[in-house]
Amino acid sequence: MTKKEKIVSFVWQHLLLLVSLFIMTLGVALCVKSMLGSSVISVLPYVFQEAGADGMVPALTIGEYTYIMNGVLVFGQIGVLRRKFDPVQLFQLLVGFVFGMLLDFNMYLTSWLEPVAFWEKIVAQLVGCTVLAAGVALEVRCGSVTMPGEGFPVAVSRVLGMDFPRVKIAVDTSLVLLGIIACYAFFGEWQWHIIGIGTLFAMYYVGFAVRIIGHHLGWFDRLLKYRPGFRRYLYGLAKYIYRK
Known about the structure:
Layout (H helix, E strand, L loop, with lengths): L2 H32 L8 H11 L8 H20 L9 H19 L8 H25 L5 H13 L3 H24 L9 H18 L3 H8 L4 H14 L1
C-alpha cells in the first residue's frame, strides 16, 4: 500500500468512526430523554449537569462533563499501565472530545422528545439502547483506538490478569454507584430519572444487542475496505464547476 493509499484509508476509517460516534451519542441522548435512567456512560455527567443547573458545580453540559470524565479515564489508564501505556492511546482524548460534542448535538436534536406516558418512556429507552448498541458495534468494527470507557477496563484487565468482561462490569457498576453517591451529595435523594430501571436495563441489554448486531455487519466490513477515489471525485467536481 502506497503512502497516499494509507492516508486515504486512515481518513476513510475515521470518517466511519465519526458516523459510529454519532450513532452512539444519539442512542445515549434517547436514553436520557426516556426519563427512566440514562446509559452507564452518561450517569455521572448527567448528575453533574443537573447539579450545575442548581449552581452547585460549574454549569456545563452533559457532553462537556462526559469529556471531563473521559479525560479522567484516560489518565487513569496512564496511572494503571505506567510505562506500558501506549502514547497513541492519547488519541482517546480527541475521540472523547468528539463524543462529548456529538452528545450535546444529539441532545439538541432530540430536544423535542418529551415522553409522558410510561409506555412512551419504555419505547424511548428501548430504541435508545438499541441505537447505542448499533453505534458501539460499528465503533468496534472501525478498529481505531478504543473509547475511554472501554480503554480503562482494558488497562485494568491487563494489569490484574482478569477477563475484560468481568472488569468492564465492575467499572460500569462503580460508575453507577458513584452516580448514586453524587445524587445524595448534591440533591439529598435518589434521582430516578437519572439512575433508574432504564440504567439497569441498559447495562445488560446493550452488551447483548452488540453481540447480535455484530453478526450482521458484513456490509460494514466491506464498506471499511472500500477505498474512495477522492482525487477522482474532486477532479469531477472541478470540471463541473468550470463548465458552470
